[in-house]
Amino acid sequence: xxxxxxxxxxxxxxxxxxxxxxxxxxxxxxxxxxxxxxxxxxxxxxxxxxxxxxxxxxxxxxxxx
Length: 65
Prior knowledge:
Number of helices: 1
Radius of gyration: 13 Å
Shape: flat
Largest sheet: 3 strands, mixed
Structural class: alpha+beta
């Protein structure tokens, strides 16, 4: 059974454990939609994000911090 690392982050707040928690699954390449749904259900959070490697040389989206 493969293992996947994930982090839990609090979004829309500057204080820990307030507002909306989100699960961020790292290295989710190769996961199918059904597997992603099972992982999202397992985290029991309202939001789950899966990070994948870019599929094109120049990604069209960037992450803002």
